[in-house]
């Protein structure tokens, strides 16, 4: 935002935030364009030396006034040009002064000030423009790619022509002069490949087969020199911010891998006086030694930053790192003096001051590894898995010495105890299952001891408490009878089968009880009293809503929590008293309710007992009747057969025989009912 002032001498704009002033002389103005933009209408001014100035926020009604002013004082026609809003992504690129304009027909779609371009790279039929990062903006455009179709013209490459037009006006890092030194064919892990590294006074140039990167020394945050676990290789890690880009991929770390055996003799492309003046003894014109030492020494002198090396940590094998896995790939975790760094895919650097807590997870006596979890204060979690169990003691001592917050502290009495609380470990699940099986075995043994003759039939019955599942009981009986006739081995097998069924019944029962208890909650029971905070919230909810219209439920509860926290002790005491009164009322109501409910429950219990008694009596009678009728029918059947044998089938009609049988059955039932229930044998004898 700012103020625009038009005078006869020229145009002056003052930025209200930075105080920067744009002063355009009237004699320098070459063209003025009026167009509709996102914020109302805008004015674009082009100067004779190629600079472009754009101002937005005008009203449509101001066009006539501005047009007349430009005609009268600047002798310029204020042209009206609308932007193209078709949404097409193909058109023509025009270069005019410091501006790249992408047009469809005669209408511009967008314009890019070439002074904002930091890098221009070419590919096959493609040009990529990268831009300087804008520190003031929350979101800034970093990259635009143009597809340039091939043309039939000989000798002119349209891609190169496009790139040269951009580079002639762009604020690109130019490799002017000769490099101080060049390291050829260095192995790079990220971005992967072999690169030549040219060292310039202000930037580092990575030159590969497909990609080129120019890295200003100002973007280098840290340097790390880390020995590989095999003691034959070295990692040299350069931390970058902003990162280098390759398409959609961002590389925050540049990782070089060196063999310790590689040596190099290096001569700097400077005379001895310049070397001494610039580097003050840190470098000399002629140097020789290991390749990794030379690269790190040169980088340290040019970037002017310390090189971080591993501290006094030593793992189980004597290495200064721990082999582990992060996400999908295996790598090395280096505990440093002020943080952790993981190499290499993806590289991760975590400083101690960022860490909220660390956690040792999922290790048992049978499992040969554990996980090391790190959670940062921002809530990001890093899990380094498959760490050998032998590394646990060393890593724990290191973390303890650095005074990092350990989530499961106090459980370091041994590996197993340290992880017993993790229910998701495989060992724990098997233990729980084993305990359950032991309990079931004990129950089986007790039931087997209780049975009189040791047959499978009685164990089946004892494992089927409650007769609500009749089908299961019958199935068990048939299995049991079959097993009793077959050998002891079969009966043992059958004894195991019903045990499984019994377990299912056993597991189901408590669930039913829980459901019944939930369903049977008395709606007349007194409600629990509210806390002081809830009483206050109910009283002030509408007030908070009116003060913050449109507030969501979660935001309302957060706001209420803040208000309650900020409230004075005296005001809180008032609500505490109200809560105390509510609690007393609740206790009083509960006493009254419990007395009433006890009397009701005793009545219902009595009525239930009576019903049960009646059911038992009727059941006993029915069983005895059935037994008597069975004995009578068995004795009378031969007599009945004798009487029927005297009658020929031709003379007996079906109606008569059926009526006769029904009459006999009726008389038998009456006889069985009239007999005393105790003596079944005497009844059959007298009959």
Question: Main beta sheet, described?
Answer: 8 strands, mixed
Largest sheet: spatial strand order: 17-16-15-14-20-19-18-23
Helix/strand/pairing class, anyone? Answer: alpha+beta
CATH topology of one domain: PH-domain like
| Residues in β-strands, percent | 25-35%
- Number of DSSP helical runs: 15
Shape: extended
- The proportion of residues forming helix, as a percent range, comes to 40-55%
CATH class type of one domain: Mainly Beta
Question: Can you tell me the residue ranges where pLDDT is under 50 for at least 5 consecutive residues?
Answer: 410-430, 452-509, 630-645, 652-687
Provide mean pLDDT, rounded: 75
- End-to-end CA span: 121 Å
Q: What's the CATH architecture of one domain?
A: Roll
Number of strands: 30
Gyration radius (Cα, Å) is 47 Å
Describe the protein.
The protein is α+β, with helices and mostly antiparallel strands. Among the domains are: 2-80, Roll (PH-domain like), CATH 2.30.29; 92-168, Structure-specific recognition protein (SSRP1) (PH-domain like, Roll); 181-308, PH-domain like (Roll); 322-402, PH-domain like (Roll). Helix content is 40%, strand content 28%. It is built from 15 helices and 30 strands. The protein has an eight-stranded mixed beta sheet with strand order 17-16-15-14-20-19-18-23, with helices on one face. Strand 26 (339-343) and strand 27 (348-351) form a beta hairpin. Helix 11 (532-547) packs across helix 12.
Annotation keywords:
687 residues; disordered C terminus; PH-domain like; 15 helices; eight-stranded mixed sheet; 40% helix; seven-stranded antiparallel sheet; alpha+beta
